[in-house]
Amino acid sequence: MSRSYTHLVAQAPALPRGFELPLEPRLPRIGSVDAVALEERAGSLAKRSIKREAKVFALDLAIRMMDLTTLEGQDTPGKVAALASKAIRPDPSDANVPSVAAICVYPNLVPVAVQRVEGMGVKVASVATAFPSGQSPLEAKLDEVRWVVEHGADEVDMVIDRGAFLSGRYAKVYDEIVRVKEACGDTHLKVILEVAELGTYDNVRRASLLAIAAGADFIKTSTGKLPGAATLPVTLCMLEAIRDVHEETGRMVGMKPAGGIRQAKQAVQYLVQLHETLGVDWLTPDLYRLGASSLLNDVLMQLRKEKTGAYQSPDYFTLD
After folding, report:
1. Which CATH number goes with the domain that contains 264?
2. pLDDT tens, 148-188?
3. From 123, 141, 172, 256, the catalytic residue
4. pTM for the whole structure
5. Spatial separation of the C-alpha atoms in residues 107 and 286, rounded to whole Å
6. How far is the C-alpha of 123 from the C-alpha of 66, rounded, in Å?
């Protein structure tokens, strides 16, 4: 990718509202992602072995980076309260186990979540913009974003309009992210690409750069509602887009793989990939999150095993 492209992408001004011509006439071409090289590097990084001390550090870091999530139609205030308790004290028997970064809930449950984690250092993230489809009028999406922000959400996880993106209306997608970022104010914005619907690595890279240009604080792989969610190659593709923008402009954008990450081994693989691609500066919950609904228990079991030498029964930990 040419340096002139990353420079323009990182600093592109907001487009006039309703302007729906493709962005390509305004910017040089992205170029194609080398899928073979990308997948080979992702596979190679996944095979890296790490020492016990590094593994304990990685497992502890995975917990601190976790967005503990419940996004089901059967969610209730009681379920969110239980989730908040687990987020604050993942292992009640071990005070050295840190809290997770955030809990992620539907908009209507934000007030409950905010009340339950108040003063505990755990943030509240809310999905918004007609999650998971994104198929609502823009004003309805903006009203939802404003509502969750007014009710105390620290972070907003929005979905892009994949229909607009796949039909080439990149300016519409860009403008919508800009408007949502404006509605967020100081609240951090994570932009969900829903990579399973984008089809190609080229599209994933294009969508990543588009989201970054529009003001995303984080880019996120998936809603977790489709079978094809986060994978190591697609996450690497997004990390490389973040790296390229940072190398040109100095701007640091966060990353959140989500969906399908259920085992501690996977979490460690993602952290190795992060370290090797973006370096130690990104090894912080401020710049990297793991979206998870069932990952935490396995990480807790593996952490206990590394500390004591013995596996704990899964029944020992509460269900997420």
Report:
1. 3.20.20.70
2. 999 999 999 999 999 999 999 999 999 999 999 999 999 99
3. 256
4. 0.88
5. 22
6. 11
Could you tell me if 198 and 204 are in contact, meaning their C-beta atoms sit under 8 angstroms apart? yes
Q: pLDDT at residue 253 above 90?
A: yes
Among candidate residues 86, 123, 172, 220, the one labeled active-site is 220
Phi and psi at residue 230, in whole multiples of 5°? -65, 135
Total domains in the chain come to 1
Q: Using CA atoms, how far apart are residues 4 and 209, in angstroms rounded to an integer?
A: 13
Question: Does the pLDDT at position 23 exceed 60?
Answer: no
Mean pLDDT for the stretch of residues 267-284: 97
Domain assignment of residue 314, yes or no: no
Query: Does residue 157 carry a catalytic annotation?
Result: yes
Query: How many helices, marked H, and strands, marked E, lie in the chain?
Result: 12, 8
Nearest-angstrom CA–CA distance, 24 and 29:
7
Distances (CA, A) of 135 to 48, 131, 163, 184: 41, 8, 9, 19
- Strand pairing category for 188-192 and 218-220: parallel
Q: Is 55 a catalytic residue?
A: no
Q: Establish if 23 belongs to a structural domain.
A: no
Say what percent of the chain tops pLDDT 90.
79
Give the span between the Cα atoms of 196 and 260, in whole angstroms: 12
Q: Which two tokens stand for residue 314?
A: 């899964």
Q: Confirm whether 220 is a catalytic residue.
A: yes
- Structural domain for 98, as ranges: 3-12+28-309
- Per-residue tokens: 21: 């011509």
Give me the catalytic one of 67, 91, 154, 157: 157
